[in-house]
Amino acid sequence: MVQIPKTSAPSSPAQHSVPTSADVARLAGVSRATVSYVLNNTSAVRISEPTRRRVHQAAKELGYVPHAAARSLRAGHSRMVLMPAPDVPVGPLYSQFFNELQWALGRLDYTVVQYGSVGLQGDEAVRAWAELRPVAVLVPGGGLTPDGVAVLKRSGARAVVTLGPDSVEGAHALLMDHERVGHSAGTHLVAGGRRRIGVVMPQDTGLEVYSKPRLEGVRRAVDGTDASVTELSLAYDEGAAAQLAARWRSLGLDAVFAYNDEYAMLVMRALQDEGIGIPGDTAVIGADDLMLGRLLRPRLSTVHLELPSGRELAELVDRAVREPVAATQAYEVLGARVVHRESS
Amino acid sequence: MVQIPKTSAPSSPAQHSVPTSADVARLAGVSRATVSYVLNNTSAVRISEPTRRRVHQAAKELGYVPHAAARSLRAGHSRMVLMPAPDVPVGPLYSQFFNELQWALGRLDYTVVQYGSVGLQGDEAVRAWAELRPVAVLVPGGGLTPDGVAVLKRSGARAVVTLGPDSVEGAHALLMDHERVGHSAGTHLVAGGRRRIGVVMPQDTGLEVYSKPRLEGVRRAVDGTDASVTELSLAYDEGAAAQLAARWRSLGLDAVFAYNDEYAMLVMRALQDEGIGIPGDTAVIGADDLMLGRLLRPRLSTVHLELPSGRELAELVDRAVREPVAATQAYEVLGARVVHRESS
DNA sequence: TTGAAAGCGATACCAG
DNA sequence: CTGGTATCGCTTTCAA
Predict the structure, then answer these.
(1) Which residue of B102, B156, B266 is in closest CB contact with A118?
(2) How far is the CA of A70 from the C1' of D8 (A)?
(3) Is any atom of nucleic acid chain C found less than 7 Å from the CB of residue A21?
(4) CB contact B14 to A (< 8 Å)
(5) Is A177 near chain B, with CB under 8 Å?
(6) What pLDDT, in 10s, does the model give residues B63-116?
(7) Is B45 on the interface with A (CB under 8 A)?
(8) Which band of pLDDT confidence, cut at 50, 70 and 90, is reported for residue A278?
(9) CA–CA gap between residue B337 and residue B181 (Å, rounded)
């Protein structure tokens, strides 16, 4: 970081301590109770207009901001929905889904908080989340244990929802079985007459949650056919791709399913540079249906994913919070369908 | 969302109310104070080993998890670092930077929370952040006002750091002036003999924070030369790119700087499909130095960005928290340098 | 219509 | 070494 001090503004004025509702009350010449009534528009109690004005005026003057912790401590609950922040760089697909979800939950008056639990292991992380006493917890990507769910529930979470490959006892599950993705791709390749299928797996271990099921899906697709599957580990790196391409002919593969479109692009480029014809010599198919696939030549075949809409998930959460039902439910929400373009 | 209920597990056992330290004390047969001492390993006080064990045992049995709000209410401060969650899909560059930052702050024992403030306007959002009484606030992307900083400071934030184009009174600033990015690109194109430069601007208004300064940078680069700049608004969409390419010859441009490598790829593809030679007829340069640029043919020239390391920012935050200095400081932290490949 | 006071859960002082 | 207890900021009965 280049450190070039550029400005040196004068200090902010003396640090008065943080104003409380008591300060507001004092300044307005009323009791703390009245302040609370006015600021929360409590309908059960009617406050005279002049008093309201004085309170508002005082609050503004002091720059009063209520203390969320104190409030929810008193109330015994919050409207915080907690999600662990993903610790692996996550694609545009997920980002968009998440934004939508956040917006939808905001509309329902929940506050969404992404909690960075880097470095914490499993149930340790769960305890950290539980300390915040969120009303609901959304956990993407597997790894939550039934014990973890129990901790969250005991700490007051009215809804625990997992978004991942399998459902966890006690939690609602949005099943996103990426096995389907691989299965679609595999089926497509086999139907196209391919028999020796390579599957490109990211070396990045953080992506295994998705890549392994995708691989399994391909395996299932070729099961009972005379086709075979070869696992190919690959770093997201030009050099690694070139090395893979160099030994491609010796591998004797006639098709490759890449973890996603980005890896597909990487592999496709390397194969083309090696003089391997696509789809003639080797068919290539990716996944996630990213824009870039459409821009490649030949156009990249891919598996299009359908994620649940943020609005629907938000409603599920809201329902679960309002009436925690006896039985948790699991929904299969991942749609996968092949988009056949030119590379396969 | 396809809703296929798949499992229907039995309800979790009766909802006992959330266990408190008092419950632990009762079960262990000690006072609440003792529980606190044991669970926090308070060194000022020595507790007998048998008592410690009884307390730990009781806590485990009840599944006790401390209440963060109560704790920080009592303590008068928290170690929460708050960042508003970006509401526009943000690239891999930012994601990586953010992960690093999160990790580094975690090492320093801070808890990073991304707060979803979708739908809230300016100072309304600031008040929402202030309610959480974070010890530090990191605000990316401009839009924070001096008043906003004052609200945060008054609510107890010991450090307010902006990451954006300009510095704000009262806050530390990590200046990331994207004007430099455009300037590098523009200078490069002009030096290469290009005279009629198109600048591709995303239609997505959320990206204006970055795209406008980049455009200005190009303008500054051509200033005083005989080159000219043409602004080209473009949706991230194949059709839009094709339309742009169709009227390309009539535009009479001999170079284009795209907002980033993704837009560059989009434009380059459309131009190539239109039979326009790159870099012969038109030079193309992108920005952000994404992997995909290296995979294009011709290889995409780009502007490589150097962001501050997460570790350094974390240390800046920590310093600011520990000793809020009289003067806030501003650092220029965005490095930009052209990576000349084949497309320009 | 307003005020006094209890209490949410955890901590740290001060006695015992 | 351990236990009472005041306290953080806020909401909400209950009285006045």
Answers:
(1) B102
(2) 8
(3) no
(4) no
(5) no
(6) 999 999 999 999 999 999 999 998 777 788 888 888 899 999 999 999 999 998
(7) no
(8) very high
(9) 8
Q: Is the pLDDT higher at B1 or at B34?
A: B34
Q: Report d(CA A249, CA A305) in Å as an integer.
A: 31
Single out the residue of A137, A156, A149, A130 nearest to residue A75, CA to CA: A156
Spatial contact of A239 and A206, defined as CB atoms under 8 Å apart: no
CA of B60 to C1' of D1 (A): 23
Q: Tens digit of pLDDT for each residue in A128-182?
A: 999 999 999 999 988 899 999 999 999 999 999 999 888 999 999 999 999 999 9
Predicted confidence at residue B16, as pLDDT, reads: 60
Q: What is the pLDDT at residue B3?
A: 35
- The full set of domains in chain A, from first to last, is 21-66 (1.10.260.40), 75-175+308-334 (3.40.50.2300), 179-305 (3.40.50.2300)
- According to DSSP, the β-strands at A302-306 and A335-339 are antiparallel
Chain C positions with an atom below 7 A of a protein C-beta are: 1-5, 7-14
Task: Name residue, tokens 């739908």.
Answer: B119
Query: Any residues with CB less than 8 A from the CB of A195 and at least 6 apart, and which?
Result: A226, A227, A228, A254, A255
CA distance linking residue A174 with residue A165, whole number of Å: 8
Query: Residue A46 in 3-state DSSP?
Result: coil
Taking all residues of chain B, what is their mean pLDDT, rounded to a whole number? Answer: 91
Distance CA A342, CA B274 (A): 19
Q: Token pair for residue A86?
A: 């993903």
For residue A16, what pLDDT is reported?
60
Long-range contacts of B248-251 (CB under 8 A, 24+ apart): B248/B274, B248/B276, B248/B282, B249/B276, B251/B196, B251/B198
**Average pLDDT rounded to a whole number, residues B277-295:** 97
Position A83 pLDDT exceeds 90: yes
Residue A67 CA to D8 C1' — how many Å?
11
Q: Judge whether residue A56 contacts strand C, using its CB and a 7 Å cut-off.
A: no
pLDDT of A324 > 90? The answer is no
What average pLDDT does the segment A38-45 reach? Answer: 91
Q: What percentage of chain B has pLDDT greater than the value 70?
A: 95
pTM: 0.89
What's the full length of chain A, in residues?
344
Average pLDDT over residues A46-66: 95
* Mean pLDDT of chain A, nearest integer: 91
**Is the CB of B166 inside 8 Å of chain A's CB atoms?**
no
Q: Assess whether B311 (CB) lies less than 7 A from strand D.
A: no
Cβ of A45 near strand C (under 7 Å)? The reply is yes
Q: A221 touching B, CB under 8 A?
A: no
Q: Does residue B67 approach strand C to less than 7 Å at its CB? A: yes
The Cα B307–Cα B86 span in angstroms is: 17
Does the nearest atom of strand D lie within 7 Å of A45's Cβ?
yes
Which residues of A spanning 273-302 put their CB closer than 7 angstroms to strand C?
none
**Quick check: A75 contacting B, CB < 8 Å?**
no
- Helical spans, DSSP H, in A111-197: 122-131, 146-154, 179-191
User: Tell me, what DSSP letter sits at residue A195?
Assistant: -
Mean pLDDT confidence for A17-26: 94
Dist. CA A311–CA A91, nearest whole Å: 20
**CB neighbours of residue A16 within 10 Å:** 11
B75 touches strand C (CB under 7 A): yes
Higher pLDDT, A54 or A13: A54
Q: Which residue of B has its CA nearest to A159?
A: B12
Residues B157-172, mean pLDDT to the nearest whole number: 93
Cβ pairs bridging A and B (under 8 Å): 238
B300 CB within 8 Å of a chain A CB: no
Nearest to B63 among A73, A154, A291 (CB): A154
